Structure formats: structure tokens, C-alpha cells
Structure to design on (333 residues):
């Protein structure tokens, strides 16, 4: 078995019992090859100094407060941004709700990235100016404002790649659902429209998801409807299922979205033969503990702790270590 398939299988073990293995099979069949490697190839194709548009963040308790975000997604995006900055000197621009940007920004900083404006980021291309950076941008919560903001933002950024992790998208009825099939669109930036527009412009795109309700899952809509609870029929009465309609070029499924990001970074390190790009258990721990300081919640148990999706911190570190060793042993051969 090739390295990409080993990484895929490792991060698609259905530890949460949510049907991810069936979504993986559908995504793998669509891609015709290993998902982690297909996604890594998109990252590797970013030109030196290119802008990458990324999104993550889930407002999972908006009926309490729109400032409460979850800890699956930001750590994974941070690992991807770090690898893009090191490998391609890329300028990652991370888009989310204004309310979630402080938390996401704090995780990016903990991953080694300096938070700057886009104008400042472009100066890192000067000789001797090497600096791993990230840019934060907010995005409208309202449908019409989101539609209006999409074209100008894509014109301004001219991204070489669009990358989404654990970012909920609307279903065929235009409703955003959580994993219990409940409408939780309130307080949520309509970033799925931005990704639809990026796809329409031919901008390469990658999405990571673990449930079926995220951007990218439109690629495996039939499998989401068939195998995910509330996939065919939600609990909100909209008449649809929780499956997101937005598609991307590559969909990386994973039992936990952070794991999908880890596997993509590992595949990139293998592709470019650069172990310095690899995510590490030490950094994973630092990012998840930083998340507790920033108030990010473990959304399964509804508490601030480093146990993403209800799975203990030690397991997340172990998955990162296994991905890392798979690549290191491959590179040593
Ligand atoms: Zn519904």
C-alpha cells in the first residue's frame, strides 16, 4: 500500500462512530487515488509567495454566544498554514466570523505565524525578509452581504488555492445544520458561497470534513444521505438532510478534521521530501492547550478542554506521531 493510502486509512478510522468510513470510500472513489496525496499535490502546486485562502471555525453554540468556537479545525488549519509558509513562503489568509478570529489568530500564533495585514505580508517577499505570516479576514453573516463580498475578496486576494477545514456549509434548502440535524446557521459567516465562487473561477480547492455537513461534502452527497445520521432527513423541518452542497476539487475525509489536516501536511512533507514540514505531537499539544486559554470548546462534551470531538488529547498526539513516523520511515527508504 502506498503512503497516501496509509495516511488516509489512519485518519479515517471511525473512532467517533459517525459513519466516516463510508464517506471516505465515496471520496476515495471520486478522487481515484489517496485523498491526502491528492490534497498535498494541490498545496505543492501553490507558487512561491502565493496567497492561499483558508477557512475554519465553527460557531457551535450561537444561541448562547456567537463568540464560542470549537477546537476542531483551528489547530489543523494552523498546521496547514505553517507548512504552506515553510514550503512555499505562501501568504495564508484565514477567513472566518469576526467573533471567532481572536481564537483562530491565537492558534495561528502558537503555530509560529506572525499575524499581519495583507500589505505587510507581501513585504515578506523582500530579500532577507523571510517571515512565516498569516492574515485574518472576517466575512459577512448575512446571505446578501456574503454574496456581495465574495467577488471583491477573490479579486483582491487572487488566491492560488482555497482550503477549508471543518467549515459548515448550507444544505440544498440553504440551511446550516449541526450533527444532530439542527439548524445552527445563526451567527455563521456564509463562507460556503465564497468557496462556490472560487470553484466557479477555477481556483484549485481542498476541503477537510468529518461529519457530512461541511464544505466539500457535496462531492459525496449520496453517501452522506445514506450513511450519516440526519443525512437524509434533518431535525429542523427544512425538508432536507444535513449534507452540505458545496463541492471542492479534493475532499479529505477524516474521523476528526484536525487529523485530515495532519495527514495532508504529512503527505506534503513526503511529496517535497522535507521532514521539517511535518506536524509534531509537541506542537499539537501546544495548539490544543492554547485553545483552552482562548476558550475553544470540545464540542461533543460542551466544555473547554483539549479533548477535540470528545477524544482525549493523548489520542490526537498519537495520531500526529503515527502520521509523522509513516513519512519518516518512507523518506528513510
Ligand atoms: Zn433542516
Amino acid at each position: 500500500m502506498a503512503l497516501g493510502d496509509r495516511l488516509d486509512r489512519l485518519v479515517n478510522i471511525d473512532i467517533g462512530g459517525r459513519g466516516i468510513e463510508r464517506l471516505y470510500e465515496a471520496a476515495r472513489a471520486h478522487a481515484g487515488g489517496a485523498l491526502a496525496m491528492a490534497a498535498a499535490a494541490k498545496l505543492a502546486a501553490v507558487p512561491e509567495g502565493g496567497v492561499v485562502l483558508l477557512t475554519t471555525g465553527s460557531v457551535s453554540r450561537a444561541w448562547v454566544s456567537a463568540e464560542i468556537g470549537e477546537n476542531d479545525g483551528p489547530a489543523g488549519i494552523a498546521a496547514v498554514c505553517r507548512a504552506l509558509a515553510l514550503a512555499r513562503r505562501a501568504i495564508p489568509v484565514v477567513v472566518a466570523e469576526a467573533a471567532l478570529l481572536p481564537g483562530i489568530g491565537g492558534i495561528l500564533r502558537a503555530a509560529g505565524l506572525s499575524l499581519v495585514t495583507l500589505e505587510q505580508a507581501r513585504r515578506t517577499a523582500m530579500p532577507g525578509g523571510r517571515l512565516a505570516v498569516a492574515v485574518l479576514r472576517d466575512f459577512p453573516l448575512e446571505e446578501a452581504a456574503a454574496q456581495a463580498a465574495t467577488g471583491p475578496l477573490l479579486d483582491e486576494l487572487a488566491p492560488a488555492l482555497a482550503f477549508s477545514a471543518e467549515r459548515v456549509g448550507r444544505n440544498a434548502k440553504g440551511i446550516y445544520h449541526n450533527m444532530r440535524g439542527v439548524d445552527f446557521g445563526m451567527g455563521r459567516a456564509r463562507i460556503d458561497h465564497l468557496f462556490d465562487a472560487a470553484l466557479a473561477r477555477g481556483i484549485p480547492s481542498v476541503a477537510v470534513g468529518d461529519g457530512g455537513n461541511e464544505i466539500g461534502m457535496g462531492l459525496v452527497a449520496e453517501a452522506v444521505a445514506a450513511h450519516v445520521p440526519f443525512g437524509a432527513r434533518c431535525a429542523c423541518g427544512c425538508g432536507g438532510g444535513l449534507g452540505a452542497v458545496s463541492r471542492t476539487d479534493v475532499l479529505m475525509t477524516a474521523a476528526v478534521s484536525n487529523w485530515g489536516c495532519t495527514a495532508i501536511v504529512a503527505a506534503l512533507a513526503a511529496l517535497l521530501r522535507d521532514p521539517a514540514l511535518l506536524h509534531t505531537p509537541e506542537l499539537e499539544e501546544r495548539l490544543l492547550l492554547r485553545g483552552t486559554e482562548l476558550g475553544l470548546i470540545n464540542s461533543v462534551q460542551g466544555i473547554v478542554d483539549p479533548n477535540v470531538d470528545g477524544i482525549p488529547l493523548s489520542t490526537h498526539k498519537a495520531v500526529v506521531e503515527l502520521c509523522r513516523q509513516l513519512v519518516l520511515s518512507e523518506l528513510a527508504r
